[in-house]
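From the methods appendix. Each design record in this collection lists the tokenized structure first, followed by the designed amino acid sequence. Records were kept in a plain field format so they could be parsed without special tools. The example shown here is representative of the layout used throughout.

RECORD:
FOLD TOKENS (224 positions):
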């Protein structure tokens, strides 16, 4: 397997802007999917596609995986690798891996149970709010933490495996009536935004203004 090609490291401002864009997208999904009739209708339509496409046995297995076993396996694994990263002085990844689930879990729990109100617009669905998915956010944040403290150089199959786990976790939270697709989408955007902003804040590199090529060439030319 070929390792992932090394790409230029994004700057701290670029990470922060991308993270804020994810958080704005999270708010858009919240407003449209939860509080508007077209959004609720589209959410119900996608929910019906999942229920009518997958057989009940598979949907139940996905639910068990997403809402139990994924967290049971990922939580101790991510914690162990984070501690190992700390001992190896990889503090940036370790702090993100340990802090992200701790921050995301209470935020999503509060939003689901108290912070977000789902109005009844005659579209169907639950009478109570289910946005965002706490279980999906937990799995997503643990997977991000796992990426941050991965002990060896990442290869393509590593990323494909973790992306597959994330997809199954998202689908599993919808497959057995626990959540609507918008709930999982919101959780993904919230975790992505928090992770990118956190990674930018933890970046040890000092921010340096961009120097043009012409200015760099001038600096190299000796005076006289």
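DESIGN:
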């Amino acid at each position: 397997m070929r390792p992932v090609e090394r790409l230029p490291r994004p700057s701290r401002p670029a990470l922060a802007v991308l993270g804020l864009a994810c958080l704005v997208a999270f708010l858009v999904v919240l407003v449209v999917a939860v509080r508007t009739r077209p959004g609720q209708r589209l959410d119900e339509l996608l929910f019906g596609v999942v229920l009518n496409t997958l057989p009940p046995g598979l949907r139940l297995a996905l639910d068990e995986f997403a809402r139990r076993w994924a967290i049971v396996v990922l939580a101790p694994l991510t914690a162990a690798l984070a501690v190992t990263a700390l001992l190896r002085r990889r503090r940036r990844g370790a702090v993100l891996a340990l802090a992200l689930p701790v921050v995301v879990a209470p935020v999503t729990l509060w939003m689901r149970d108290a912070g977000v109100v789902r109005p009844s617009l005659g579209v169907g669905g639950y009478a109570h709010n289910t946005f965002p998915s706490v279980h999906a956010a937990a799995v997503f944040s643990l997977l991000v933490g796992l990426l941050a403290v991965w002990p060896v150089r990442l290869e393509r199959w590593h990323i494909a495996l973790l992306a597959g786990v994330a997809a199954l976790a998202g689908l599993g939270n919808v497959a057995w009536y626990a959540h609507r697709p918008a709930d999982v989408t919101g959780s993904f955007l919230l975790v992505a935004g928090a992770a990118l902003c956190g990674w930018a804040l933890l970046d040890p590199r000092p921010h340096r203004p961009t120097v043009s090529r012409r200015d760099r060439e001038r600096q190299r030319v000796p005076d006289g």
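APPENDIX NOTE: The two ends are 54 Å apart (CA to CA).
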